[in-house]
Amino acid sequence: MSVDRDELVAFYTQLQTDLCTRFAALDGTASFGTERWERSGGGGGTTRVLQGDGRLEKAAINVSTVWGPVPSKLSERLASRASEFFATGISMIFHPLNPHAPTMHANLRYFETDTGESWFGGGTDLTPYYLYEDDATLFHTALSDVCERHGIADYPGWKQRCDEYFFLPHRGEARGVGGIFYDHLTEDMDAVDTFQRELGSAIADVYTEIVDRRADTPYGPDQERWHLQRRGRYAEFNLAIDQGTKFGLETGARTESVLASLPPRVRWDHSATPESGTPEADLVKVLQRPREWT
Amino acid sequence: MSVDRDELVAFYTQLQTDLCTRFAALDGTASFGTERWERSGGGGGTTRVLQGDGRLEKAAINVSTVWGPVPSKLSERLASRASEFFATGISMIFHPLNPHAPTMHANLRYFETDTGESWFGGGTDLTPYYLYEDDATLFHTALSDVCERHGIADYPGWKQRCDEYFFLPHRGEARGVGGIFYDHLTEDMDAVDTFQRELGSAIADVYTEIVDRRADTPYGPDQERWHLQRRGRYAEFNLAIDQGTKFGLETGARTESVLASLPPRVRWDHSATPESGTPEADLVKVLQRPREWT
Question: Which of A51, A56, A266 to mutate to test the interface with B (most CBs of B within 10 A)?
Answer without folding.
Answer: A266
